[in-house]
Amino acid sequence: MKLSQIISKLSIICAPTCDPEISDIIYDSRKVNQGTAFVALKGYAADGHKYAESAVEKGASALVISDDLDFTVPEGVAVVKVADTRLALALMSAEFFGNPARELKTIAITGTKGKTTTTAMIAEIFERAGIKTGTIGTLGIVYGGETYKTSNTTPESYEIQKAMRSMINAGCKAMVIEASSIGLKHSRLAGMVFDAGIFTNFSNDHIGGVEHKDMEEYLYCKSLLFRQVRHAAANIDDAKWQEVTKDFDGTVKTFGFSPAADLIGKNDRLLSEDGFIGVHFETEGSKTLSLDVGVPGKFNAYNALAAVSAVSFFDVPDQAIIDGLRAAHVKGRVEPVKVPGNYSLLIDYAHNALSMENVLTTLRRYNPNRLITMFGAGGNRPKVRRYEMGETSGRLSDLSVITEDNSRFEDVMDIIEDIKTGLHKTGGKYVVVPNRKDAIRYCMQNAQDGDIIVLAGKGHEDYQEIKGVKYHMDERELIAEIIEEMK
């Protein structure tokens, strides 16, 4: 593709004097090769302009810069100067991949909490409606049954555009993305107009360091999404919903348990039956539905309301909503695993005291026969985390099963002793089973009717790190093996 076509949407300060053919767009100078365009990004720790000369030496045909360069660019290498190279990368990537967002139904979710779960719910509803869907977010780029890991909740714009083109090639008709405040701040979603933008909630997070200087900036960055959406929906029960959506050019559809909402939730109650743990609620207003959500906690009723609001902008049958919400789950986040027996087995990523507190407090509200928590703690990490996790589980669980979890370069038994220090403060019951598969087997073999068992710490991870080596280990596979062995 000609450079002139790729940069056609940029506001250019200094135009190039030649128009080379471009084979790819690169923003990491180590990946530059012949015929590529190198975009010099300014990062937290590095400035791409320092590597522009190296990019030319490796064969870059074009440089996109915002600062003057300290070397003479050879004749035949195009130089494009813009005010913001991150914005330029987004707009160039959209053009390079043929503006894939225009070929998909697109939904972007922003908010402090609930983005990952809401994304999964929407994707499941679309799939039930026969709309093959890809997602981009905390768990990576997911489509066609495959997951491609990313380093950020909202990846760099080039990765987003490339992923959407791959989704289309794989037969996807829709894409749902988590729009983080950092992603919006750094223009990773620029160059697209989303069919729908959804606001879940707003609370204190991501302040300080390299993220946001204060709450005002954090809120402002979230609001940026609503400048590039055709339809918008927001949680009316959150005090900041109007401020976040203030730049939307249209009427915002609201959802919540307030009677003032367009989509009203009501009659919510916790559900626990035959291994199914979730929440039931009904809706009235823009839709009248009776819904069972397969993820525990009332806050997931809010996520479900957000998902219903999102898909309501499209031609999606109510039955797809009903079926999708009952089946939806997020890999590794209070993820249910089917087991033979009248108890519930959940996999969760909780790997510190705060996340463990949140999960166990939520599950306590289901009044289980026993709440059993199996967990370990990571090696080569602050010991205080282990004490706190032991204390939290001892206080909230009926039984703690202590085991291994990414021991890294430490001895598993040393880590377990630290966890026991916290447990002893509570007097909570515990057993020690150092091997993780054996620990899962112990939980399953000793499960009683009505128990809720949480396998905490690994979540979506599919490895166990020991002595610097990552060994494959997926708890879902271990559970399947144990079920076969128990037969």
Please give a structural write-up:
The chain has three domains: 3-96, 3-Layer(aba) Sandwich (Udp-n-acetylmuramoylalanyl-d-glutamate--2,6- Diaminopimelate Ligase, Chain: A, domain 1), CATH 3.40.1390.10; 100-327, Mur-like, catalytic domain (UDP-N-acetylmuramoyl-L-alanine:D-glutamate ligase), CATH 3.40.1190.10; 335-486, Protein-Tyrosine Phosphatase, Chain A (Alpha-Beta Complex). 31% of the residues lie in helices and 24% in strands. The chain has 15 helices and 24 strands. The strands form four sheets. An eleven-stranded mixed sheet has the order 9-8-7-10-6-11-12-13-14-15-16, sandwiched between helices. Strand 7 (133-137) and strand 8 form a beta hairpin.
Topology:
Elements: H1 3-6, E1 12-14, E2 24-26, E3 36-39, H2 52-57, E4 62-65, E5 78-82, H3 85-96, E6 105-110, H4 115-128, E7 133-137, E8 140-143, E9 146-148, H5 157-169, E10 174-178, H6 181-185, E11 194-199, H7 215-223, E12 229-235, H8 241-244, E13 253-256, E14 263-273, E15 276-285, E16 289-293, H9 299-311, H10 318-327, E17 335-337, E18 344-348, H11 353-364, E19 371-375, H12 383-396, E20 399-402, H13 412-424, E21 430-432, H14 436-445, E22 452-456, E23 463-466, E24 469-472, H15 475-486
Parallel strand pairs: 2-3, 3-4, 4-5, 6-10, 6-11, 7-10, 11-12, 12-13, 13-14, 18-22, 19-20, 19-22, 20-21
Antiparallel strand pairs: 1-5, 7-8, 8-9, 14-15, 15-16, 17-18, 23-24
